[in-house]
């Protein structure tokens, strides 16, 4: 499907170290690379009639600036905040300020892992959270976001 002005835009934002996916710790995160995640998102978005802007950064400030950039510009944000999930009040504040539906994704089941990963600041404002389903969590998040945007008219 060709991107058109009618397709709602969804930002798919990825936090620190996700550029390492598939290169290390396959027992935790699987063998797919971030390029594979982007291809899965592109394929899924096309099927759902969504446009996506897929990005990854290792910087907290850059991630926050991207969130601001999408205010009034995107229909929703899907975010894997990675390590910043567990540490960043600033990212939570930015997500609260943009007033967009947010779906938080984690590849691993953060509740099965170390205690410090059980709490996510972002979850406090997210419409929904998907974790533990591997990279298919991103496809599920896009499907849920398409429904939310449709419901919102
Ligand atoms: O499970 C997830 O998606 C996480 O958001 C991934 C983060 C982790 O800090 C969160 O607790 C859960 C880590 C990002 C990826 O880090 C890698 C490090 C080495 C090799 C591959 C990935």
Write the layout of secondary structure elements.
Layout: E1 9-14, H1 26-29, H2 34-48, E2 51-56, H3 60-69, E3 76-80, H4 89-98, E4 102-106, E5 128-131, H5 136-152
Helix pairs in contact: 2-5, 3-4
The structure holds ligand CA2.
How is this structure best described in words?
The chain has 153 residues and is an alpha/beta fold. The chain has one domain: Rossmann fold (3-Layer(aba) Sandwich). Helix content is 37%, strand content 17%. The chain is built from 5 helices and 5 strands. Strands 2-1-3-4-5 form a 5-stranded parallel beta sheet, with helices on both faces. Helix 3 packs parallel to helix 4. The longest helix is centred in the last third of the chain and has 17 residues. The chain starts with 8 loop residues before the first strand and ends with a helix. Bound molecules: ligand CA2. The site of ligand CA2 has 16 residues, from loops.
CATH architecture: 3-Layer(aba) Sandwich
Structural class: alpha/beta
Give the ordered list of helices and strands.
EHHEHEHEEH
- What is the helical fraction, as a range of percent? 25-40%
How much is the radius of gyration in Å?
14 Å
Number of domains: 1
Tally of strands: 5
pLDDT < 50 stretches: none
The backbone outline, from C-alpha atoms, is: globular
Q: Give the DSSP E fraction (strand runs of 2 or more residues).
A: 15-25%
Stated plainly, the CATH topology is called Rossmann fold
CATH superfamily, called what?
A: Dehydroquinase, class II
CATH level-1 class: Alpha Beta
């Amino acid at each position: 499907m060709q991107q058109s002005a009618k397709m709602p835009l969804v930002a798919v934002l990825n936090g620190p170290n996700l550029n390492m996916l598939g290169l290390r710790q396959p027992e935790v995160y699987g063998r797919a690379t971030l390029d594979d995640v982007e291809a899965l998102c592109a394929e899924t978005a096309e099927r759902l009639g969504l446009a996506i802007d897929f990005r990854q950064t290792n910087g907290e400030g850059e991630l926050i600036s991207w969130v601001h950039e999408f205010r009034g510009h995107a229909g929703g944000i899907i975010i894997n905040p990675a390590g910043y999930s567990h540490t960043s009040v600033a990212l939570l504040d930015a997500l609260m300020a943009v007033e967009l539906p947010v779906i938080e994704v984690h590849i691993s089941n953060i509740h099965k892992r170390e205690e410090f990963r059980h709490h996510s600041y972002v979850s406090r404002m997210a419409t929904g959270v998907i974790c533990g389903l591997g990279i298919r969590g991103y496809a599920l998040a896009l499907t849920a976001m398409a429904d939310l945007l449709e419901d919102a008219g």
